[in-house]
Design goal:
single chain; 472 residues; alpha+beta; Helix Hairpins; Heat Shock Protein 90; 3 domains; seven-stranded antiparallel sheet; five-stranded mixed sheet; 49% helix; rod-shaped
Length: 472
Amino acid sequence: MRRAPGSVRARAAAGATAVVALALVAAGTAVLLVLRGNLQQQAGLRSEVAAREVAAQIATGTAYPKLDLPDGDDHPVVVTDEDGRVLAVGEDVRAVDGKRVTGGQQGGAEQAPPPDDDGDDDDDAGGLRPGEVDDDVRYLDGTADVDGTVGDYRFAVVEAKDSRGEKATVRAGSALAPERDAVGSVRDAMLIGLPLLLVVVAGVTWLVTRRALRPVEGIRAEMAAITASTDLSRRVPEPAARDEIARLARTTNETLAALEASVERQRRFVADASHELRSPIASLRTQLEVAVAHPELLDVPGAVADTVRLQRLAADLLLLARLDAGERPADARVDLAAMVREESSQRVGDRIPVRVGESGSVEVAGSRSQLGRVLGNLLDNAQRHAASSVRVDVVRAGEWAVLRVEDDGPGVPEAERERIFERFVRLDDARARDDGGAGLGLAIARDVAVRHGGTLAVREGAVFELRLPVAG
């Protein structure tokens, strides 16, 4: 299925928005929890202050009916004895945790809800003396009915002993409604601001990604135009920035340049091959047509020579095609010295005998047939240009096996030492096909050398040097 245009920008914007949304939700939740905890802590501190003020009055001997209790709307207060009876209650406080506490008079008050204990009342009571206030405080969450309005409160519970040694428990509360209102306001602000912020993030990401990918669209459009026109000389635009897209554009242009060169080489190769094949085929056809009309005029040796030449040319073209296709050579061990002796012994009909000079045993890894083809092509080239001597040497130079073929001919001009390895290239003094061949021998030799991890070059004069890595 074809993706819709701009899908990369859409995915980038959606991904960035999702990440920011998760981060904001996590941060917002943390902020709300911290804010809620701080506000609850402040409420607890306010209720503790109110409870200790009442407990201090009790410890100094103030009678319960005369206690100065905070207003019930601010801090509902209930004072109880050890049995849970209400000794004093704040103004307008009617119930705590659902139990009525109004009408509290010492000796005739209703039972108040006992505060939640943690099991250490006896220790606290035993440690207090008359007229003292306990240093410990306990915090409880509960409800209180103040003048008919029930609300949630944070209670602080403080114990004290009056001057007679009787223990009283002061329970003072601080409303949690302001804390919840504050948390709710912050939450509502976040719920309103979060979508707006996500819209901004998505829009900015979309615009930034669009601008960043604009050169990619230019590259794509130019590549599409190149594909449609088949004009490999065109190049994609390269951005001025030194980023990944610029490197992509440069790599694309390098690929186009290599592709253009490859296609040009292939086109030239096909044209040259067609030209080279046309001559022997035309000559052979002419001889056969003459033989049909005049059998006595048939030039059998000439027909055989043209056939052999055509066969060699076809073999060379086939080998070049395999090399261009990336065929890897075999990984066999080849003794270069033994190969030189074997090849030289089979060239008994050469114009000039091949003399084997220094020949130390050295092995390389590769294809015996292909390396033999290299040696044969070098010897053929030397035979065509030598005056009276052709010499082959095999030596070892460090990690390299070196095979040298030298003749006493005029040598290769320094300006032509690279061009002779191009396909179908023949120097001016070797233009005749009978002497110079089709111009594929040295090209094949260098391609095979490169495939074997080596090099083939012309040194001084007419010395061709093949260097291959030593096996193992």
